[in-house]
Amino acid sequence: MDFTPPPIEDGFTAEKLFNQGFSYTYDDVIFLPHYIDFPAEAVDLSSNLSRNLRLSVPLVASPMDTVSESAMAAAMASLGGIAVIHSNTTAAVQASLVRAAKSRRVPILHDPVFLPPSAEISSADDFGDSPFILVTETASSKSPLLGYVSRQDFLKTNQNGKSCRVRDCLAESPVSVPWSYDLGKIDEALNEKKVNSVCLVRDDGELVDLVTREDVDRVKGYPKLLGKGSVGPNGEWLVGAAIGTREQDKERLEHLVKAGVNVVVLDSSQGNSIYQLEMIKYMKNMYPEIDVIGGNVVTMYQAEKLIQAGVDGLRVGMGSGSICTTQEVCAVGRGQATAVYKVSSIAYKSGVPVIADGGISNSGHIVKALSLGASTVMMGSFLAGSTEAPGTYEYQNGQRVKKYRGMGSLEAMTKGSDQRYLGDTAKLKIAQGVVGAVKDKGSVLKFIPYTLQAVKQGFQDIGASSLQSAHDLLRSRVLRLEVRTGAAQVEGGIHGLVSYEKKYY
Question: Needs which cofactor (predicted)?
Answer without folding.
Answer: K(+)
